[in-house]
């Protein structure tokens, strides 16, 4: 993207913010527009930890609103109306989790086409929103089949129409515990990353806690000839080293990274001894910050009795120290935090959008 285009994009986003303020005044969501005025004087004098144009949401959080029948409710339904609502709350970025909506929504059910992408792009632009990524198709085959390669090329074409800087997946590169499988995953992701780079897009993978469990790469072999012990390196840390930093990027799901800190604390070393190594999500990012263009800003309340150690809650209402996390990043204008809450949909059909508004306010309130 040229410098001139970046300047034009910044101006467009600025106009989008003004549009939001006008919209807020006429739709009853003025609180979102007036948040900076509501901050205590000391907090208001500090810089926002997440700049306004970097505050985002992955649409999986509001999947119930996108997928519901607009003929059955007055609540926002389908992509266009949900974009309007999210823009009204203040969001400037979205991350897709696929391109399907209810068949009765404007544009029809499946927008994963060239024409569908153009429609989505128009709605994004109309609401001052920028799409930063998508959790979509990553080929399972390796070497690639012709069909998988062609489909991935189509993914990149749609991404360019939408203006995405990134394409990726909601899964880990592999769910395996074994070094050899991560080696194969690196070969595939390096190749896909080169295809994406040729289209001007960054390829990214998203983590769950298992990706920060320890790699099995040492010790006695099992009956299938696989190692049973660990050198102490974590699976994704190994992948960092063997994947090409020019081709493969990452989206840390910060909630799941803290779950990993809770769950994956010990490993059996080559000599059979049990060793402790507590995972540090922030240190992991800071060691290779340019490889993390995206985050999932997902919050949790500490619950040691739960299997994951945390209960998922709206952003800013849990115990994960996001103020410290974002304050310690070297370049807050590089990263794109996307609010996510897997359990935001509930029995109240308005809940996921209410949580989205609350979470935006809490993200906007972070100062450092």
Automatic annotation (TrEMBL):
Keywords assigned: Isomerase
Keyword Secreted: no
PROSITE patterns linked: TAT (PS51318)
A GO MF label: isomerase activity
Xylose isomerase-like TIM barrel domain location: 83-339
Superkingdom assignment: Bacteria
A Pfam family the protein falls into: AP_endonuc_2
Positions of transmembrane segments: none
The keyword Nucleotide-binding appears for this protein: no
PANTHER family per record: HYDROXYPYRUVATE ISOMERASE, INOSOSE DEHYDRATASE
Protein name (record): Sugar phosphate isomerase/epimerase
UniProt organism field: Nonomuraea jiangxiensis
Lineage: Bacteria, Bacillati, Actinomycetota, Actinomycetes, Streptosporangiales
